[in-house]
Amino acid sequence: MYIKRHAEKTVRELSKMFGAVLVAGPRQVGKTTMLAKVTDGMNYATLDDPILRASAEEQSGTFFKDNPPPVFVDEIQKAPMLFEQIKLILDRERKKGQFFMCGSQQFKMMKGVSESLAGRIGLVNLLGFSQRETHGIELDIPFLPTDEFFNERKKQLADIPYQAVWNVIHRGAMPELHDNPDFNWQMFYGAYVRTYIERDVRELSEIGDTVKFTKFMVAAAASTGQLLNIASLARDVGVSQPTADRWLSILVASNIVYLLQPYSNNITKRAVKTPKLYFLDTGLAAYLTRWNTPDVLKNGAMAGAFFESFVVSEIVKSYYNRGILELPLYFYRDKDMNEIDLLIEENGTLYPLEIKKHADPQKKDMDAFALLDKIPGIRRGSGGVICLYDKLITLSGNDRVIPIQYL
């Protein structure tokens, strides 16, 4: 059964604004399935087909005569020379919604986009299923802890029992695993990692040692929810720091990893400058770090880090699905070890959030919020503690207990 993706609406909106739309994201998150739905009735060309790919490589100038727009081109990164042809057609025809493209090798695609199609293309990042999508919740506005958001959100709520939360965190957000409960989790992610490294990474980056790259992915997954320490990652894997930097940039560009930047301005001189690392699919992170069942994960040493990674990824999806690529998300930590897990910035206001895996939040969980009041020119908005309590209630002033059902 097809589960409607929130990004569908965004793709349709962008196609009325731009001549081309590109959907990028990790492999197997449903990019082709979603675009096939949006472009139903249009021409379709997949560059997984070796004959079509050869045609694109050898006769790029005539490719779109055989596959005229409006057209959906799948795996566009396999023939980046087509970007120049798309540019020529768009400049000549000046029509909207002519080219729909997707592919999993975002780091290669973006080079072609920036060189050929700047200003002519709408971009969407698609990740795995969000909880709103899997529960059929139509509300697609980005998460923000305000009265307006919660008033809309409470109209469409799904009951998510405590154990179900950990089942979801452990299984991950891949559509194929969601649609096939009988699929073996370990076999799926084992094949996923092999394919990602052999087809996406190795082709593009000349990583050389795939065993060490796999070890690097494992070390990064073990760091989810923590401050990035690239020197430590390099040391753990046995590679140079420049190599570790390059490998991390591959994980980030292919939307496997998200780096949450620290909030800082000229006033916050005591704030740390290092980002926090999050795996965007907690199932993949659990596979890499060998937390083999939901119960073992829930009761293990990394439970808090995985819960935090899950919450951050859900909030990231709420912005990506609406076509927002530059995310207004930060965290705060200073040299006195005061920390706020997540800050959302909007219109000069910072909305502070703590993320706790327990179900009994306390006012003291929000003690660090007061630090924001000391930053000149910044207004502190409503915030709260995102946790496993089951009711949205006021904890103190404008700050709430926020059940994960409200993400």
Describe the 3D structure.
With 407 residues, the chain is of the alpha/beta class. The chain folds into two domains: 7-125, P-loop containing nucleotide triphosphate hydrolases (Rossmann fold, 3-Layer(aba) Sandwich); 139-406, no CATH class. Helix content is 41%, strand content 17%. It is built from 17 helices and 15 strands. It has helices spanning 7-17, 31-38, 50-58, 60-66, 82-93, 106-116, 131-134, 147-153, 162-171, 175-179, 185-205, 210-221, 230-237, 241-253, 282-288, 294-298, 303-320; strands at 20-24, 43-46, 71-74, 99-103, 121-125, 226-227, 257-262, 276-279, 329-333, 339-346, 349-355, 379-380, 384-387, 393-396, 399-403. Strands 6, 7, 8, 9, 10, 11, 12, 13, 14 and 15 form a ten-stranded mixed sheet that branches. Strands 2-3-4-1-5 form a five-stranded parallel sheet, with helices on both faces. A hairpin with a 5-residue loop joins strand 9 and strand 10. The radius of gyration is 22 Å and the shape is globular. The two termini are 24 Å apart. The relative contact order is 0.11.
Structural class: alpha/beta
Count of domain modules:
2
Please report the distance between the alpha carbons of the first and last residues.
24 Å
Tell me the number of strands: 15
Q: C-alpha Rg, in Å?
A: 22 Å
How many H/I helices?
17
Strand content: 15-25%
Low-confidence stretches: none
Mean pLDDT: 92
Helix content: 40-55%
What profile does the largest beta sheet have? 10 strands, mixed
What is the 3D form? globular
